[in-house]
Design goal:
Radius of gyration: 23 Å
Protein name: Peroxidase
Number of helices: 13
CATH class of the largest domain: Mainly Alpha
Number of domains: 2
GO molecular function: heme binding; lactoperoxidase activity; metal ion binding
Distance between the termini: 70 Å
Shape: globular
Subcellular location: Secreted
CATH architecture of the largest domain: Orthogonal Bundle
Number of strands: 2
Strand order of the largest sheet: 1-2
Strand content: under 5%
Family: Belongs to the peroxidase family. Classical plant (class III) peroxidase subfamily.
Helix content: 40-55%
Pfam family, one: peroxidase
Amino acid sequence: MAMKRHHHQHPCSSLIFLVLPLLLQFYLGKSELQLNYYAESCPNAEEIIKQQVINLYNKHGNTAVSWVRNLFHDCIVKSCDASLLLETVIGVQSEQESDRSFGMRNFKYVKTIKDALEKECPSTVSCADIVALSARDGIVMLGGPRIEMKTGRKDSKGSYLTEVETNIPNHNDSIQSVLSRFQSIGIDTEGTVALLGAHSVGRVHCVNLVHRLYPTVDPTLNPDYAEYLKGRCPSPDPDPKAVLYARNDRETPMIIDNFYYKNLLKNKGLLLIDQQLASDPTTSPFVEKMAADNGYFQDQFARAVRLLSENNPLTGDEGEIRKDCRFVN
């Protein structure tokens, strides 16, 4: 009688399906960012960050603006890796020492957010993800769009002070150099015009705008607006430590909206770069479109912030999870 042969599946074959993605990840050296990265390792992570951002906003409204600025300053230099948060110690020169970081503040409150996360899930949530998610939640507090943001970034083990100057556009740079800088990290002209809409909130120190007022007023400035600015910045030689400043958007100074673009069309751009947006033929059609339609602006702003937050992240074993955002482990 012929024996029936049973074909048992080899126990290794199902293992291959499990191991293959891990091997690929190992050889490629990168795991991708993903939505809800902390769903299992720290399920409340995003909620904790959001609560902290709301609490800090209620105590110090301007923290929300700082979170948005942190994202830009961190992500445009090399990677979204929290290198910005490192303080100067032996072997590390803080990026915060650059002139480009002038006027940045509220770094101490990042520690408030990190401490709350460490209490819940020690050494689990990266400072780089805190930078990204606090910006996302800060944008909501400032009346901007709710952005779906991926997580899973790791923290850098070094800072890039020397690269800050070359990577962060200056307020006097030409529009073309700003566009090409953003292009190099994958943000198109439309997205760049939308990102500059973050100038709708916050303020500009007199140091950065007196050259448009003295010795003669820049002819591209609306004369009434120039008078307002002279009232805010009465000296051609302001003390950089004095908190003399002017707002880009006086109508809704704490809301991310399209008033910024409406003002540009009235020649009320605060910085040279703001005014060039409205006058340069590459960018002016987008300025007009955003001035006319706040929904379109917010959609483009959300898209650009998402692209910025995903610039060249460190993932897998390329970085670390800092215990204290101010120092490498």
